Amino acid sequence: MKLKKLILLTLFFLPIFAFGKEAFTITIERNMSCFDESTVGKILINGKEIGRTLELPWRNNEAGISRIPKGKYKAFIRNDGKRKWRLQLKGVNDRTLIQIHIGNYQREIKGCILVGDDIVKHSKSECMVTNSGKTLDKLFEKMSEFAEDDIMSRKDVDILVVVK
Prior knowledge:
alpha+beta, 8-stranded mixed β-barrel, two-stranded antiparallel ribbon, disordered N terminus
């Protein structure tokens, strides 16, 4: 009888241990437009805000001039030397090279998502995110905590980006 219970418990819990953790989830909550029509929002990890986001306005998902559609996207870490690391999204309909990366101004993106600690009015005609590098570093730290290791050395960590 004890052996039967042990076998049942093993069969129940084995899939949890064998396949590892759930995905590291990043949520982008878009919540307004800036006066220059750019889209701003919050970036959250486990429901906790770690910064702000800046994207292009919605223009029917046209490459180079529009933000991406709402959805759930798998992502991977990409390291571009001097341009540093970034997250690249997979499976964005009709789009390629969509990333979460460092930057301050709408003119620096072609559909990507910039992160920073605040949204401010840069000039009479432009909004910007501030401290982009520090905010991306904060995201990197959270990912490394989740991976229980330097995230750059781990290729087996699933990353999910939810854009609302």
